[in-house]
Amino acid sequence: MEPRPPQPRSSRPFDLPGSPETAGIGERLYPTPGEPAYAAGAEAYPPGAAAELPLLPRRQRRQRGALRGVAVAVVAIGAILAVGWFFRDAVRGFVDPPAPSPTVAVIATDAGTPAPAGETAALPNALATVTPMPELEVAATPTPAPDDEASVAQETSSEGASEPSEPDRDISSETLPLLELLPTQAQLPAGLVLADEAERSQVEVVESLGGTEEASQLLEEWGWSGNAFRDFIADPEAPPPTGTTFLNVSVHRFADAAAANNAMIVFSDFVIFNQGLQREDAPAIGDDAILLVGVPEGIPLAVLYAQEGPILYRIGGSSGAAEADPTSDVLAVAGEIVPGQAGG
C-alpha cells in the first residue's frame, strides 16, 4: 500500500468547529466580539424623550403621598378662609343681625314718673329720684310758663276733681287699681293742681334705674307688677305759700312686703348716689319710710319713700326758690294717702 499523503495541520489545533447562530437552545448567552454588550429592546427610549424615573422604595412613596395630602389640605383651608373673609360682612349679618337703631332718645326722670306729656311736657322734673341730675338742664325755676299753667288750671277745675279732663295716656286695667292709692285734688295742699297722670312699664322703670341688667333682674326677683303716678304743679293764680312748684306722687306694686322694702332701699340709695341727697329723720308712717332732702344745682328737693305691705309710695316735691322748702307739702300728702301712720 502506498502511504497517505500527510494532512495539513491547522494553526489552531484545539479550536472546535464553529456552530451556526441557531445551534443550541434559544439565543446566545454571550455577545460575540464586536457586538454591543446589551441589545436594544422594548425599554429603549426614542431620541429626545425624557427618561422614566426609577421606581422609589415603598417608604419614600408613602412619605411623598402624605406630603401631597398635607399640601392639598393647606390649599383647601386657605381657599375657605379667603372665601370667608370676602363674604365676612354677609355672614356676620346673618349670624348676628345688627340691633335696630333707636329712633327716639328719652331721658327717664323718675323711678315712678316718666317725662310729662302734653301741656306738662315743658316741666323739668327736678325730683328725678332715680335719674342722675347732670343729665337734666334745670332752669333757674322749674315753674312752667304762665300760659301753660293757665291752660292746666282751666282743664282741672277747682271743685276737687281727681282726674284731668283728658288724661295724657291710657292706663291698663291692671294698673287702674293703683290710681286709687294716689292723692285726689282735694288731698293736695292749697295752691297745687293736677297736671298729669299715667302708668309706667317695667322697661321704663329699669331705664330710670340706669338701664342695667342688674336692675331688670331685681325687679323680676321682687315681683314688680305695676306703677302709676300723678303730677301736680303750682296754681299760677294762687301758688302754695310754701313755695312748692312741682309735686309728684307714684306707687309701685311688688309681690310682698319684703320685696317692697328691698326696693325702697335700692331706690333711695340710687338717688343718694346720683343726686347727692341726704337722709333725714323720717316720720312714723307705713311699715317703713326714708326721707331724703337736698339742694342739687340750687333746686330744693324733698323725697319721701314709704313702704306699706307690697306697695311702695314715693312723694317728691321741688321748689323754684332757693330759700323755699317743699318738705312740708311732701309730708302733708304722705299723711293723706299712706296708711299705717302712728296715732292715725
Name the CATH architecture of the domain at 118-325.
3-Layer(aba) Sandwich
Q: Can you give the helix content as a percent range?
A: 25-40%
The end-to-end distance, rounded to whole angstroms, is 187 Å
CATH class of the domain at 118-325: Alpha Beta
Kindly report the CATH topology of the domain at 118-325. Answer: Protein Transport Mog1p, Chain A
For the biggest sheet, the summary is: 7 strands, antiparallel
- Global structural class: alpha+beta
Shape: rod-shaped
Could you name the ranges where pLDDT drops below 50 across 5 or more consecutive residues? 101-168
Number of helices: 8
Spatial strand order of the main sheet: 1-2-3-7-6-5-4
Q: H/E element string?
A: HHHHEHHEEHEEEEH
Q: Averaged pLDDT, please?
A: 74
By DSSP, the count of extended strands is 7
Instruction: Please report which band the strand proportion falls in: under 5%, 5-15%, 15-25%, 25-35%, 35-45% or over 45%.
Output: 15-25%
Which radius of gyration do the C-alpha atoms yield?
Answer: 51 Å
Task: Describe this structure as you would to a colleague.
This protein has 344 residues and is an alpha+beta fold. The protein has a domain at 118-325: 3-Layer(aba) Sandwich (Protein Transport Mog1p, Chain A). Helices cover 28% and strands 16% of the residues. It has 8 helices and 7 strands; from the N terminus they run ααααβααββαββββα. The protein has helices at residues 58-86, 88-95, 146-155, 176-179, 202-208, 213-222, 257-275, 327-337; strands spanning 192-199, 226-234, 244-253, 278-280, 288-294, 301-308, 311-319. The longest helix is centred in the first third of the chain and has 29 residues, at 58-86. The radius of gyration is 51 Å and the shape is rod-shaped.
